[in-house]
């Protein structure tokens, strides 16, 4: 029975994701609020059909996002609260992006990508993922917001997971809106910084730096890390960058960091690290390793990149003239690890 239940849950997985997407689009968690509410009242505020809303909120309770206190009366769980855009740890933009048709459609061709090793997204949309984002500003803004929410947990941990005190400047390569670097600079007043990304990736960075009072300590630089990265820092930081790209492209990015790395400098890579084995039990498959494996397939179908093992990271670093010195799991920002590399 347990085996059949596992298969059923997995087969219904895409439906669960779309249930969460509908909850975000209909603002269900916001409308339920802080006190239990009847489904009919939520439906009225959402402009939805009452019986259909009752079915939706019941499903959300079944998924652990709401609690049904009495028949047809619901409140928000701690997990469900993360679907409120006003929550300080909100994941609404993350949910919107990763249930977005632009992400999901290529997954319909996963079997083809497995057969050929080719990216499915390019064939479905006629261009690569990041070019598609650049051509659709609203989607690009949604992606940037999702990445900002996704980095928040790491931003709370990283400043204290590494000895930044012995350095003077950090360049965040592919740093997006500057959320991660703002946290590092905020915790280490001796540092200055550079957020480096494409123009569309940097769209929110000036506001982020201004909001944290860092505009005078951190500059914003646009460019292409396949051509070069800014020189002048002794720490080059990358979070969730290398997994977007093939090994050859990852080596190019790392090589450009190595070319500007001063004596005593360091490259910090923050990414999930695949274990050598993910186990064989249902519990193992539901673990963080299982999520990382799904992310690996997402890289295959949508971007052409991959998640990597420690050995894989050592190899791409070595090809770029860097030596991997340590891999430290960020236990409060699972599934990410801090990977340190220095010049050979």
The CATH architecture name of the largest domain reads 3-Layer(aba) Sandwich
At the fourth CATH level, what is the homologous superfamily of the largest domain?
A: Vaccinia Virus protein VP39
Q: Strand content of the residues, in percent?
A: 15-25%
CATH class value of the largest domain: Alpha Beta
How many helical stretches? 17
Description:
- It is a single chain.
- The chain is an alpha/beta fold and 344 residues long.
- Helices cover 48% and strands 17% of the residues.
- The strands form two sheets. Strands 4, 5, 6, 7, 8, 9, 10 and 11 form an eight-stranded mixed beta sheet that branches. A three-stranded antiparallel beta sheet has the order 1-3-2.
- It is globular and about 65 Å long.
- Residues 281-286 have low confidence and may be disordered.
Which characteristics define this entry?
Rossmann fold; WH-like_DNA-bd_sf; 17 helices; 344 residues; 8-stranded mixed β-sheet; O-methyltransferase activity; globular; single chain; transferase; Arc Repressor Mutant, subunit A; WH_DNA-bd_sf; 3-stranded antiparallel β-sheet; 48% helix; alpha/beta; S-adenosyl-L-methionine
Give the structure's gist in a few sentences.
By secondary structure, this protein is an alpha/beta fold. The protein contains 17 helices and 11 strands.
Helices and strands, with pairings:
Layout: H1 2-11, H2 13-25, H3 28-32, E1 37-38, H4 39-46, H5 50-62, E2 66-70, E3 73-76, H6 92-98, H7 101-107, H8 110-116, H9 120-125, H10 129-135, H11 137-157, E4 169-173, H12 179-187, E5 192-197, H13 205-211, E6 218-222, E7 235-239, H14 247-260, E8 266-274, H15 282-285, H16 288-303, E9 308-309, H17 310-319, E10 322-329, E11 336-343
Parallel strand pairs: 4-5, 4-7, 5-6, 7-8, 8-9
Antiparallel strand pairs: 1-3, 2-3, 8-11, 10-11
Helix pairs in contact: 4-5, 6-11, 11-12
Pfam families: Dimerisation, Methyltransf_2
Active site: 243 (proton acceptor)
Keywords: Methyltransferase, S-adenosyl-L-methionine, Transferase
